[in-house]
Write a structure and sequence with these properties.
254 residues, Rossmann fold, seven-stranded mixed sheet, 37% helix, globular
Length: 254
């Protein structure tokens, strides 16, 4: 794998548009589960303060959009201006702040929930835990979510041979320590529908592809195009069904 973890974590800005076009969203059932309890799943209600949610490592707003649609009061934070520019283009009324999990640009006790989609593995976990605990109100929720390709189907397994198998090492190894309690895990199986070009964008937006030497990157994308052209399940189709297993982890601030 090319580049240091820090270099790869900061590489996505170079392919922000491909990230937005190719990456999947998150299934409603997963979001429901992450926010369940503490009334975090509800937006504005008569006589109540709006539930405030921080989307930490928000990227182009894949999860942010789903949260805004629920009527939640959302703040997006990401270290890459290229990603936040796309987020703000689609969600102009949502605050989008430059910042990191290790230095969150919010006040103490300012949000009811912190959600992290496809990003916790890029953080310094010790520093991030302290910062998340600082900005959360007592009893607040920390929720982590990852989309992992389900490689039980033939063509998806073949895709994994080209771009690297989805081993889900991140969510399996995450531990949420004190001051967080009642940590739980949950999985959701679902299907994302995308075009052949969106599949190429998905691969192009992966950190290992972005940071690979140009010849390696070019050859990887060529092999994906060959898979699309030659695989019996994919040839001459206008839409693809890409199965995912979405892994969720949630915990409560004591």
């Amino acid at each position: 794998m090319t580049g240091s973890p820090e270099q790869r974590s900061l590489s996505f800005g170079a392919e922000a548009a491909a990230y937005e076009r190719g990456r999947p969203s998150y299934p409603p059932e997963a979001i429901d589960w992450l926010l369940a309890g503490g009334d975090h799943g509800a937006g504005h209600r008569a006589g109540q303060r709006a539930v405030q949610v921080l989307d930490l490592g928000a990227g182009t707003g894949k999860l942010t959009t789903r949260l805004v649609e629920r009527g939640l009061d959302v703040i997006a934070v990401d270290p890459l201006p290229e990603m936040l520019e796309l987020l703000s283009n689609s969600l102009p009324d949502t605050p989008a702040l430059l910042g990191t999990a290790e230095e969150i640009p919010l006040a103490d006790d300012s949000v009811d929930a912190v959600l992290v989609a496809q990003a916790w593995h890029w953080f310094d976990p010790d520093r991030a835990i302290k910062e998340v605990a600082r900005v959360l109100r007592p009893g607040g929720r920390l929720g982590l979510v990852w989309n992992n390709r389900d490689e039980r189907l033939g063509w998806v397994k073949d895709l994994g041979r080209i771009i690297g198998h989805e081993a889900d090492p991140f969510s399996q190894s995450v531990q949420l320590p004190v001051p967080f309690t009642d940590a739980e895990r949950h999985q959701v199986e679902w299907t994302s529908y995308l075009t052949p070009q969106a599949l190429i964008d998905l691969v192009a937006s992966r950190s290992y592809c972005i940071t690979s030497p140009a010849r390696v990157r070019t050859r990887t994308l060529e092999r994906v195009r060959e898979l699309l052209a030659d695989h019996p399940a994919l040839a001459n189709v206008s839409g693809l069904a890409l199965p995912y297993v979405t892994v969720c982890i949630r915990a409560t601030l004591a």
